[in-house]
Design goal:
Elements: H1 2-23, E1 25-29, E2 44-48, E3 57-66, E4 72-78, E5 81-85, E6 95-99, E7 105-107, E8 112-117, E9 125-135, E10 150-158, E11 160-166, E12 170-175, E13 181-182, E14 185-193, E15 201-207, E16 216-219, E17 229-230, E18 234-240, E19 247-255, E20 266-272, H2 300-312
Parallel strand pairs: 13-20
Antiparallel strand pairs: 1-11, 2-8, 2-9, 3-6, 3-7, 3-11, 4-5, 4-8, 9-10, 12-14, 14-18, 15-16, 15-19, 17-18, 19-20
């Protein structure tokens, strides 16, 4: 029975591992097998739409079948808008080939991968499948940011496939620490990992709850417009909590999302505990000076001096 349980546990672990690995791999395109047809147009772009990106991510490896050694380029498009054009690629030989860019290529969900042929086609295709949208003969090299002028379409499957990694949008609150007891000046810090790099942020500090629209004491929501720093990657704000009521608080970090982004709402609970300043010298004795945090003291003498200076200023309770 123990062996059976151990074997089942190993199987489940391996299955979970494989599933996780599969979930993080991104592929665009078909395969790199030999096909029977070659394009006769020159100096034009054609976009294969059979297997677009199913998620945001990056592409790092491009496999293709070369029917000849004529130069070509890979092209990424969003609809008809050119998003990326590779450097010119000249196959080393006829047959399956691999090309890797100098750095990962960003791709977003539903983008398609296509080809620009300087001369006649390099990568073969078969008829069938989803429409391949093509430009006219001698349409010219595609330009990033501009639209392709499609002349028509034809069901085709080209011999290429690009692989890479799915991008996981994530965020983390780095300050204050979870469950920390804070006082005086407190920093609120967070980071966002996002493929766009253009998202805005909503944030709040709430007393006694993390729920929306309740107990907000700081932030840029619920009629608050407190200062903060945000460069679409790192967030920072700070506050003097010495006048806040002691108790539990919650920092809410909520980057806004672009279309298709995974929503993120991070929360961090912490405790504010500002101890009332000393009002008589006896409170400074027997290491009592160490217990104060509003203000803090370096030693007993500094604590006593604080009490005396406030007494002479008429501030003693």
């Amino acid at each position: 029975m123990k062996k059976l349980f151990l074997s089942l546990s190993v199987f489940l672990f391996m299955f979970a591992f494989v599933s996780l690995a599969s979930a993080t791999t991104l592929t665009v395109g078909n395969d790199d097998t030999l096909r029977s047809n070659i394009d006769t147009y020159t100096n034009f772009t054609i976009i294969d739409t059979n297997h677009p990106a199913v998620a945001d991510g990056t592409l790092t490896i491009f496999n293709y079948y070369a029917s000849n050694t004529q130069p070509f380029r890979f092209v990424l498009v969003d609809g008809d808008i050119v998003k990326w054009v590779s450097a010119e690629i000249t196959p080393n030989d006829i047959g399956p080939q691999t090309w890797s860019p100098a750095s990962p290529i960003t791709i977003k969900s539903n983008w398609n991968l296509g080809l620009y042929f300087t001369q006649t086609g390099t990568i073969p295709f078969t008829y069938g499948g989803n429409p391949a949208w093509y430009e006219a003969n001698n349409a010219g090299l595609p330009v990033v940011g501009e639209s392709l002028d499609y002349a028509g379409s034809s069901g085709r499957v080209y011999s290429f496939i690009a692989t890479g990694d799915v991008f996981v949008r994530s965020a983390a609150i780095t300050s204050p620490l979870a469950g920390a007891t804070v006082f005086g000046n407190v920093s609120f810090d967070a980071t966002l990992t996002d493929i766009d790099g253009d998202d805005n942020v909503q944030w709040a500090v709430r007393k006694g709850t993390c729920a929306a629209e309740m107990g907000t004491v700081l932030g840029n929501v619920d009629s608050h417009s407190d200062p903060y720093e945000w460069n679409h990657i790192t967030f920072h704000a700070s506050a003097d909590t010495s006048t806040w009521d002691n108790g539990e608080y919650c920092f809410v970090f909520n980057p806004t999302e672009s279309v298709g982004d995974t929503p993120i709402r991070e929360t961090r609970e912490f405790i504010v505990n500002n101890i009332t300043p000393p009002s008589n010298k006896d409170q400074c004795k027997n290491d009592g000076w160490e217990t104060f945090n509003n203000p803090t003291f370096k030693n007993q003498g500094q604590c006593v001096s604080y009490v005396e200076s406030n007494f002479h200023a008429g501030k003693r309770n």
